[in-house]
DNA sequence: GCTTGACCCTCACGCGACGTCAGCCCGCAG
DNA sequence: CTGCGGGCTGACGTCGCGTGAGGGTCAAGC
């Protein structure tokens, strides 16, 4: 049944038995993880039964994803196997969720590439109204095209599909509604409600478009009262809202120490 | 709002804006993936707006898990993005299932390590009867301990927990039942039914214990009629079964061309 | 004008587990 | 004696940077 060649196997035979490559066995020898007890006079590696046992354990641990050094520890009796198993499990599950997120990101990108992204500005106009026309986009490019924030924003929104823009719009509407509510209930821009709305505003831009520090946020607030187009947008929602928003943003920025 | 330093950003600024390290930018420069258009007279890298745009795209692709070389291709306009996305998705999902299997393997190993593996031979005796006692195991070790097959078998069964052994027993019973049915219905060992049972037998050992080629399988069949203990086991199931099994194994081996 | 500290530069090795030559040796069959 | 199928030992390549080492640059404060 066994070819009893003195019970010593050469690398090739061992490699085939355990479904690993010869190079792998060489490597294990190099790093001292598995050194065959014997060598033929010609220098051939000869594996004994105990070597095979050790290799069997190594192969099992490798399938469990352990590193070679870690395996060496375990074989030396140092370290608790159960603890290593737990750590490994934790690491693998972490990687699993990362990969799952990657898949959804890829699906997202695929959808976007397949033509699900808003055709030019058509659908965006439907969503955001006529204030969002080509001339606006062109001017924005003109004014901010060379800022990092604009670049970042372009990179992120490039993969937004219609559903994303709908979420963006919903969030934006919610923030505006919060501002209007605070204003109309007579609360000052320094009230918690107004400042919370300002913070929500900052987060919205930060999450959806580009990183916004508190000072950058104040820059935006300033613009809302100095740039006629932005002022108009806010005034259409409620009289005095543009200035109110700016003040709330300033108060919120001051609130952060 | 923007610090307009001639619209040229240094590595540090760019790195912070895109949440990458300076080293990464150096690396992209080294491999020619992103070479800043300009350098200061002191040799400082100066990134222009178009450099930032390119970097933005690179960062997005990186998040999607593409390799740098692949990204270079895409940026050069070679290769279809959608196709790359699909390939990437396929690769990631493959890796996902691998990792899922790894987790179950780890859970398995954990269960086994936590004491769920059969205490010595107690539970095995319950399952397999008294034929499975220590003297048997010792003798097996004695006879086959130095064969690769034995080593492989030990490595695999070492992580078997009670549930695994129950599955093993169920499979074994099913195979034996098939042999008995074929024998008692008067079909010859060369019948399809008998040969199929032999093949199931080989697969069972192959999957649960160690790799079994057809010739090795015939070696086992031979042993069933020459080793009294094995013969007895089969004869207890049905008179003449040991010889019948051997013949079926030989027929099945011959069937494979 | 000088020092300080924060940045920037260019090498160049390290990582993890082998894959992949290259150049050479051994043993056995014809 | 000559192949041919192994086995041997270097040693470099992989992938995307991390991490020093050793040394300039620049704006600010003294």
From TrEMBL, chains A, B:
It comes from the Bacteria. GO terms for molecular function: DNA binding; DNA-binding transcription factor activity. SUPFAM superfamilies: Antibiotic binding domain of TipA-like multidrug resistance regulators, Putative DNA-binding domain. This is HTH-type transcriptional activator tipA. It comes from Nostocoides australiense Ben110. Pfam families: MerR_1, TipAS. InterPro entries: DNA-bd_dom_put_sf, MerR-type_HTH_dom, MerR_fam, TipA-like_antibiotic-bd, TipAS_dom. Keywords: Activator, DNA-binding, Transcription, Transcription regulation. Gene3D superfamilies: 1.10.1660.10, Antibiotic binding domain of TipA-like multidrug resistance regulators. Residues 8-77 form the HTH merR-type domain.
